From TrEMBL, chains A, B:
Entries under InterPro entries matching the protein: Cyclodeamin/CycHdrlase, Formintransfe-cycloase-like_sf, MthfCyhylase
Record flagged with keyword Nucleotidyltransferase: no
The protein's name: Methenyltetrahydrofolate cyclohydrolase
Keywords: Hydrolase
Pfam families xrefs: FTCD_C
EC number assigned by the record: 3.5.4.9
UniProt KW Hydrolase keyword: yes
Cyclodeaminase/cyclohydrolase domain ranges (all copies): 11-191
UniProt GO molecular function: methenyltetrahydrofolate cyclohydrolase activity
Top-tier EC class: hydrolase
Bilayer-spanning residue ranges: none
Length: 213, 213
């Protein structure tokens, strides 16, 4: 990684090489964030290619509003590539703490629990942002420029893959939490994000597929 | 794009900026190739973190074989980011040919048909490679190191999103083909790739989810 504080400055090839390697990061969490960010970017693209076109003047206001939201989500999801690395590194560092004395054991266990909470909330935030991309995609697939409507379909597929991918990291980290109240609350939030997303993804995909066929 | 012959040398941030912009490329086809390449890379990662571990010595031979295939697929899919740009640019160039005389009109129409065939085969090749990633993911999810098994789940989700995303571009370009025999043959191949992929994706996701929960 050329700049650890900003893995988005890594090249695509470099990121993929890192992903494939045995290095602990980047991993699936970073891939999930990129999937979500690609989804948001593609919604922005469809908006940008619809706004200003005479044929689409009636939906211009709606798409301008969506563009503001999709660009904010893209920035948020791009930042999450770094958040995932940071959260993962903190978990690894906590497991690496000394455990020679009882005092050290207690401190290590407490630290592990602390960083596991962050490592549960980071992918959950990714799930939330991906779900927002999916929700925005519905209107874009309905109202966007027909010449690039397939990109609205790719957007929803990417965001849905990002949501379900990040969900796996929520499960992994929530499982290790002693604070079951915290864990169950996060898992409840996760199911609320996941539940409607599958049917919505299929609905939007079918809308797009019907337009391109 | 810093180097048009190799968009994989673009930074992630630069690629996302280009995707979100009103520039014609990169678009959904490039995003599909990246999704597939991330899927292949994550399978390689799980293989790399399983091979050489005492606990997994029994599956080491299988995972070494898979690693060879996943790395070949990763290289192929990474190259397809450029293929998509090239195919799209060729279509745009053909539509931009002069159409003043009857001779020009005939030549332009023939060129459009020629490049649309390529623009159908390029995303179809992406679909095929993504499907191969999905097929490989099944064994990785079963045999891979449990500590990183969630990454096998992210791999299959990414590859499946890549497959369905590229499929939309096959539909778009096949629709414009006058040679219906060619088009129908490609659409038949596409359905054979897509059909079993959905159930397989869900099956592998459930295998992984059960292991991380």
């Amino acid at each position: 990684m050329t700049d650890k504080t900003s893995p988005a400055n890594e090249t695509i090839q470099g990121f993929l090489d890192g992903l494939a390697s045995s290095a602990p990061t980047p991993g699936g969490g970073g891939a999930a964030a990129i999937s979500g960010a690609m989804g948001a970017a593609l919604l922005s693209m469809v908006c940008n290619l619809t706004i200003g076109k005479k044929k689409y003047v009636e939906v211009e206001g709606d798409l301008k509003e969506i563009l503001g939201k999709s660009e904010a989500l893209r920035a948020e999801l791009t930042g999450m590539i770094a958040d995932d690395v940071e959260a993962f590194d903190a978990v690894m560092a906590a497991y690496g703490l000394p455990k020679g004395t009882d005092e050290e054991k207690t401190a290590r266990a407490a630290k592990i629990q602390e960083v596991l909470k962050v490592a549960t909330d980071v992918p959950l935030a990714c799930c939330r942002a991906c779900r927002q991309v999916i929700d925005l995609a519905e209107a874009v697939a309905e109202k966007g420029n027909l010449n690039v409507i397939s990109d609205a379909g790719v957007a929803v597929l990417s965001a849905h893959a990002g949501l379900r991918s990040a969900a796996l990291n929520v499960y992994v980290n929530a499982k290790g939490l002693d604070d079951r109240g915290f864990a169950e609350e996060r898992l409840k939030q996760l199911e609320e994000l996941l539940g409607p997303a599958g049917p919505l993804n299929e609905k939007i995909y079918e809308v797009v597929k019907a337009k391109v066929n």
